[in-house]
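Board notes (copied after class):
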Amino acid sequence: MKQKYPLQDKNGQYPESLGIPTWLYGHEPPTIFATHIAKLFANSVREEGLLAIAKYGVIYSPGSAGTIQEIFQDACQNHYNSFGVVSPMIFLGEDYWKSKKPVFPLLAQLAAGREYSSLLAITDSVDEVIQQIEKFAATL
């Protein structure tokens, strides 16, 4: 992934990025893409802030209670357009998000008639995830 999407921008510069891992759950390592690492000890504050600045969207891979909490926190921000930007919510793993943890059908129903309904996507393809993010980024 890092080879396909290098950190360098069009001018050959390395932009700074910030990773804010939970460190609440031992199985969640910090991201390898960040140039800096920060820590917030109140996980809900961390999530709210990260979702607020994730203007190009969030990709949800299979997870448990914390991931599902983040999904509905993100949905709330999109539902009420809390930060002036409604952004994509992309779910990786159709069977997981439709059957094992059927969050996607509920979210699609909740979003019906709202701006963010067209920004919900579900797929098993990493390439399609990237296409969805790039498609949205082109509209900004």
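Comment from the instructor: The first strand starts at residue 18 and ends at 19. The mean pLDDT is 86.
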